[in-house]
Amino acid sequence: MKSLPYFCRGEVIRGFGRGSKELGIPTANFPDSVVDNLPADISTGIYYGWACVGNGDVHKMVMSIGWNPYYKNTKKSMETHVLHTFKEDFYGEILSVVMVGYIRPERSYTTLEALIAAINSDIEEAKVKLELPEHLKLRDDNFFTSAPSSSSPLPTTTVTTIMNGH
Ligand code: ADP
Ligand code: MG
Q1: How many domains does the chain have?
Q2: What is the mean pLDDT of residues 5-27?
Q3: Shortest-distance ligand to the CA of residue 66
Q4: Which ligand is nearest to the CA of 95?
């Protein structure tokens, strides 16, 4: 995929409430403004990369890009599971991510156990791949040190300009 690595950031909004948190795998959702900016060659499926909340530390992440049931599967959604245990939820905060690699396309699972097993294997793959020097380098990218706080989020136009700089 030519667009990888892909940098983006946006406010964490409430998701569709599919109970990801109950499965032990909370996923922070981006608003349409971020999803709509995705390059055309970014297909649906599971990605891995780096993420940071507000001005916090950069952590490993896995992201699912899928079809949003809220819009009758006509619009994409971007959901990031950060590989870190947070003390509190961070709705309304700015989440900055860089997607660095693709793991697999979307699949449907017949049981919840099969779904959870697949996600856990995605997480293991992400943990290993992100240790590669070319990926570790992106953890230290200026993009993360310039992350705005939730009290002063950048307007969408500015965010787009920053992203195009990458
Ligand atoms: P929703 O349907 O609103 O997205 P989820 O059950 O997917 O609800 O939970 C996502 C929320 O959980 C995030 O918006 C965030 O505030 C919180 N959260 C706590 N820990 C994490 C984490 N490690 N990764 C992603 N989100 C997390
Ligand atoms: Mg979610």
Answers
A1: 1
A2: 89
A3: 2
A4: 1
